[in-house]
Amino acid sequence: MSATTFNPVSAPDYLPKEKLRELQTERMANILRRAYEKVPFYKESFDSMGVTPESFKNLEDIAKFPFTIKTNLRDTYPFGLFASPLSEVVRLHASSGTTGKPIVVAYTKEDLDVWQNAMVRSLISCGCSKHDLIQIAYGYGLFTGGLGAHAGAEGLGATVIPASGGNTERQIMLLKDFGVTGIACTPSYFVHMIEEAGKMGIDMRQLPLRVGIFGAEPWTPEMRHYVEEAAGIKAFDIYGLSEITGPGVAVECECQQGMHVFEDLFYPEIVDPDTLQPVPDGVEGELVITTLMKMAMPMIRYRTRDLTSIMTEKCSCGRTIRRISKISHRSDDMFIIRGVNVFPSQIETAILSEGKQLLQYQIVLTRTKSLDNMEVHIELTPEMFSDKVSEIEAITKRFSKAIEKIINIRAAVKMLPPNSIPRSTGKAKRVIDKRND
Amino acid sequence: MNLNQLSVYLENKPGALKEVCQILAENNIDISALSLADTSSFGILRLILKEWEKARDILLEKGFAVKITDVFAVEVDNQPGGMCKLVETLDKYQINVDYIYAFVSTVNSKAVIIMRLDSAEKALELLKADNTIKFISKNDIFAEK
Q1: Which CATH class, in words, describes the domain spanning B2-68?
Q2: How distant, in Å, are the alpha carbons of A88, A164, A247, B29, B76 from that of A147?
Q3: Would an 8 Å CB–CB cutoff place B97 in contact with chain A?
């Protein structure tokens, strides 16, 4: 395959450090100026911190500037943070607001080109080329996943199959009949596809599919291992968020050791989520990103709520752009139970280590009187089923122990019959919080 | 003497049992005997069916967790003391019972005891040698239609 052939689009991935820094500094100065001059919100927030675009002289000065948070996008709904008039805006996307209003993001023609560039470079990083047939199984629509990945695959010159999410049987039929070699979707949806393919009597390992580009939700290394084994593919993690652009902010390379941030376009910082002070490289903290090229809606020091760290070691793929470690969890996904912080990914790790496979699960939080309870529902597979109560109870106990070992609190485990947990074609819903019902 | 028992995993919630029974009814599958082991969170429905293979395929297709297990069927007198005699024999050989349930055969009105035994092979050997136990086969249970 031509994966080893150098594609000039990826040139910025290999810029010498000094050259990259020069570019970042210049672009940062421009975007700070644009934000300050065009968006009243930024003028106010800069002023309140006593900074102006002129306060920025070198890259480290960015730490003097105020953060932007998700609430700022909600408060200015729908168009309050736009730096371009609507006549220059060619596309809007919106996040699925689980609470209240969604957040709206805007793109000029130039912004879409930059996004496409980032996605093309992402796909190249995953070893894709114009010889690939890439099925886009992210939802198309207001969500950035579908159209973002689509533009990237098309820009690469690959053969694009815009399947969108859902209709899993048809997805599998297309994979098989078209001889699809790459797929982009959420990792949890791909797991569902593997299950469904099995039911249809199709062994994914026998298909030409060789690359999976999975994102939009955090996933564990154990899940990667499962997916790669069960489908006979290489599974790559891609990172992005609508506020910044959509998918294509950072992606893994063939080394699969952390994700390279396209830092000529998106400038990353890691801060302590409590003190908001920058942390040294290698230390985990909250990822903060400034869009260096976003015209319609510049994001200055946007707090992503995603926890990761910057990896300093040189990557053996040769790219010079820095890497962030695989995002283990989103601080938004965290829940507190009896005073303990728990991430769904911890439960997933426990289930994978005990079950030796990726079982469907859901975490249900309830409150009786004033006591919080956590129940973990795990689907039993037909293979695990026994006609003896004692054996099911033993399985339940093993999962409960595995979870307790990781999070240090007891969770009631309930083994459910197969197919009782609703499957999602997009981001999986792992936590059901009924505590305030 | 061996019967193929079909077990189905159920969540302990209203409607779970109905779903399985409806599927069997729709497919005209007769239930000869059943027992339901229940715990606070799940249930295991164990069925003795003449058409166990058909039922297994249909339930698997519908996505149920299903298992076929070898169980023993023995006949006891349908009168006071009948069951007691059987358990005394089990006790004599120190055979442990995983579970047990009973029904009355429509073929000969005898009481039929379905058992799953711990260390089944060894237990069977001991019980076969003991002439107080009368093992029966599927022909003694399922009436010809």
Answers
A1: alpha beta
A2: 19, 9, 9, 50, 71
A3: no
